[in-house]
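Worked Example 4.2. Read the sequence first, then its structure tokens.
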Amino acid sequence: MKLREVMTPDPVCCRVTDTAATVARLLRDNDVGALPVVASDGSGRVEGIITDRDLCCTIVAQGLDPNTTVIGTFVSRRLVTCRPEQSLDSCEKLMQTHQIRRVLIVNQENRCIGVISQADLARTNRTENLHRTLAEISKPSQTIELPATA
């Protein structure tokens, strides 16, 4: 199965120069948990991704004003992307390896043309693959060492 068959096409995007309040409204109005972030120069080139958690755990938690705080410095720029002609299996492996819940699908000009999310995986009815992917994504990413007890 190719990603173009499964992806959510034409996702709503925000710009690196948008405020946190603008992004929060886009997330709410489109009922999504993340938005691709594109360059402000009109090229549509993907710069990163921002999630509702990014807004909450950085901007809100730091007490910054969401009406004036520009999201550019809070955008996750370590992106894992795929092309629409890639297989769903290859995308799932990337999600597992990088422990990410969403992958942006980009064209040759690095413009976001789709998103593959956990929900998209669930709609494929490939239950065994979905369970494996969710388990890998959800693994703790750091080992926490507890102090020795006396």
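Now turn to a second chain, presented in exactly the same format:
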Amino acid sequence: MHMDTLNFPTKRNLLLARQRLALARKGYELLDKKRQVLVNELATVQKQAHTAWEALHTALDKANRALGLAYIEMGGARVRRVSDGIQKNASVKVLFRSIMGVELPLVNSENTFSSIKYLLHDTTVSLDEAVLAWKKARQLIISWAGIENTINCLKLHIKKTQKRANALGNITIPLYEARIKFIEERLEERERDELARLKIVKKGGAGAH
């Protein structure tokens, strides 16, 4: 059976255990700080998500109403014909910002759509408003998706950080505390035995005289 030599009651092992305990406690403090920063950031982003969600619903409602009016004024066939000529693709630029070593996405949805091109004499103002409203809604959808991605990323890293902190707080730190206590007790016991032996030797030497 393998025996952990670091448990041997020596001054060197005591020093090593104290050093590792100090490192474990420092690591726990840093992880706890990181978790708190991420939790605060999550609360901030969740507020942004709520605001973005309301703005998105408002924009979608406006876009649907504008499109409905365009259908009434122009007819479905003309609206669909003009819609087919509008570019549907969008390029989204994603950057990242770092918080406590966690990379969070920043989605830039500005200027992601080309200019709208169709013949004005074949459309109405309601269609122009519908196109612009849907353009705005699409940008808000991209922004909201980026915020949701950030929230999921934060939740994942908060969980990981908490798990690592729990491992240090519930396993590693108690392990080194117990090791230090065991070694200190054995060293003290050895020191008492040594003192007792020296007293006996001293008394034996005095009796010989």
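Notes for the reader: The radius of gyration is 35 Å. The mean pLDDT is 83.
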